[in-house]
Amino acid sequence: MASVSASFVAPRVRVSGGKRVTKRAAVRGAVRVNAASKKAAPSVEEFAGTGDLPAVRLTAKNGDTAVAYLFGGVVTSFVKSGRDVLFVRPDAVFNKSKPISGGLPHCWPQFGPGDIQVHGFARNVDWALTGKTEGDAPSIEMTLTPNDYTKAMWDKEFKVTQTITLSDGKLDATMKVYNLGKEDFTFTGSFHTYMAADIGEVRVGGLEGCKSMDRLADKEGKVAGDITIGGPVDSVYFDVPEKITVAVGGGETVTVSGTGGWKDAVVWSPWTDMEACYKEFVCVENATCAPTTVKAGGEWEATTVLA
What we know:
This protein is an all-beta fold. It has one helix at 148-153; strands at 14-16, 19-21, 43-48, 54-59, 65-69, 74-80, 83-84, 106-107, 128-133, 139-144, 158-167, 170-179, 185-191, 194-196, 203-205, 211-214, 219-222, 227-228, 233-237, 243-249, 252-260, 264-269, 281-294, 299-306.
């Protein structure tokens, strides 16, 4: 991962709500969807998304929408007041050959490099749709359990659920990890959140005083003020407060609230390593970067709220 910096260029083809969209964004890098701002009956709709992959669209009472794909259990779109808060990279593919690049994917049971594949396997396997709730605050539950592919990398007995809920202009994503085995296991993880943004206007606030680790320079530090992006960034912040604010450009601000097991945060921008799109997004992630233990028969839970 890396941090963010840049100036704006016209966005390339993006994916929003399961459709490819080409247009200049009103908030540099974000897609304005006028129709989405209209009132609509709240609903939970299963449909065939890009590449005919199974997807679910949530529509809240106020007209906000979210789209989740069962491959990777990833939310690819959260349209709030007509603006897509999330960003899907133009190089994203929807054919299961690799994880869907963008949105709100998981890094689990490993964040970053380590003993198994980078960022683990949760984002590149099929999840099951195990629950749907209609109403003014619609929600879905997606579940991941072991299969031959996961066991070859990480031979643990587990169940992971993710519950996605839309309500009051917010998207709630709750992850629960269950240890179904007879031995304790440890993991690291994050919600690798891609936010639509004008990189030159990004300011990440709320981390003042937190210890940090610049993973590119391999240097520890302490946050003195808002974080801005002027080059590649890949930094971890430890024992962070519940709420982080992200100014994304055009006068828009997104709050990222992490509760439960999310103790850390990550800011990443690839900068010119992703020449085609680095000016259009920043990743600000809730994370648990130190090994987290789930005792046999126990569970772990954490929630990210985007608002």
